[in-house]
Records
---
Amino acid sequence: MKKISEVSRLTDNPHLNLYHLKGTNRVGKTLNYYIASRVKNMERLKLKTKRNDPDGIIVYSLYGEKRDRVVLVRQYRYSIDDYIYEFPAGLVEEGEDYREAGIRELKEETGLSLELIDADLMFEKPGFMSVGMTDESCATIYGYASGTPSKKGQEDSEEIEIVLADREEVKRILKEEHVAIMCAYMLMHFLQDKEPFDFLNL
């Protein structure tokens, strides 16, 4: 049986750190594994708490009188040295409810306000982002965005373009652009479903 016997923190950064896991694998041989985590304290690693509290939040929202456009951001990401299409998203602050975090992040990144849909918790449940290398998880919230797009709330470190995409533009983005995988799956629903949020009524 696999067993982790020791965890050590290798970096000291504000938003993401590298941890070394030591132990034995399923056949009893020495295991050395490395993970990244958003937590600032080893005792809060999910492998220790066994809890899946969301580190971040993703906002899937529709825009316009006909609610026929989806709110996206085209953001520069250092990991690929390129731009990628994503939903507005961000980190949940200490003591902050993830829904409040989503409303705040949408406002900061796009200038838009969010009317939340009261979805069943199964649709908002935090999911792991890339579990082979990190314990980071994000919850998803849904709603209708309104207002005038603005970059005023964006941080200096952010390079974000606000995109209000109709179905034709979404098709082009999926065919031609880099798209975050969770965003891509939802955009496929947006293309195919007459009412994009119908799946929330299960």
Note: The chain has two domains: 3-49, 56-201.
---
Amino acid sequence: MEGEQDRSRSQEAKARLEALEAAARPTFWGYLGCELVSAGEDRAVIALQVRPEHLNLAGIVHGGVLASLLDNAMGLVAILACPGERTVTTGLNVHYLLPSSEGLLTCEAALIFRSRRTLTLEGRIADNKGELLVWGSGTFRRVT
């Protein structure tokens, strides 16, 4: 019986993630080119294939693209941590460590603290070689 319940919950969670990603496709998420890799209640991984329009005049990925990638990944975790509620970004700290100009970028975000009204998360962006490019933190507020 427990196995069936676990399978059912897993299928429900997968269907919810697929629906969430489909709903995000026509928004800035899709415009930027974000793709869901994996997600759970307190962690998510998204990816972005670098395209020419992601670069700045110096030929490296624009800082705004990287900040948006962090915000999207952390926002996804906030949405999953507070099902049925609206959450908004109230603070975003971004530390640019290394530049990148091509390849697949992967952003992992994790919930690190939760209070009654706010969530605090951290995120990391790595390149396809596993080099840490960006580290950031964010706060999100529940605005149900």
Note: The chain is about 35% helix and 40% strand.
---
Amino acid sequence: MKFTNKEVLIFDLDGTLIDSVPDLALSINQMLKALNMSAFSTEVIRSWVGNGAEVLTKRALSGNIEINPELDPSFVTKALTIFLDFYEKNVCVDTSVYPHVKATLESLYSSGYRLMIVTNKPEQFVRPILEKLGLNNLFEIVVGGDSLPKRKPDPMQLEYVCDKLSVAPSKCLMIGDSKNDIFAATAANMESIGLTYGYNHGEDINTHGASLVLESFADILGSLEPTTVVAR
């Protein structure tokens, strides 16, 4: 299928544009070490990423993707503070851009599409990462996981972007790697692209109702019919 009349492209960040797991894993293990707890492999931590910093912290403290309901809230708060402090110091050390992402984004931007980021990552980390990876000037709006009262899979972040730009959801397209992205788009009456790589906790992205599923980020270019957007 091809999408028509799209003006605004909204991208998830972690697992969609960038692989941030190496730095997240390093910071989580530094947190666990500070709390005298056992560390985990990068690949185990990779399976926990995708629902924001607090959920990642809870999973690490639980030692499992299923969060221990008996975790002490004050202990979680302490651990989260330690994690975020470590992550701030290591926010873009080994984080990398996925193949074809930069060239595709630059092509979309040059074609006149308005590019946004909606992520569950705390907002304070997003622009520094984009800046270091040479992507910052491409995005008009960044909405983080703590920017609003609710985050994906709730549609609030996407609705905020539509309101901010005075653009109907039908003119927007959500692009992400996890069910949170797809569910948020569906709830916002927005079409979506699901990407097969990234962080979806081992689940098949095809099962979550995306309008289109792609294996390569570069294929986004071929999924868009020419529109009235004005090339820059």
Note: The longest strand covers residues 114-118.
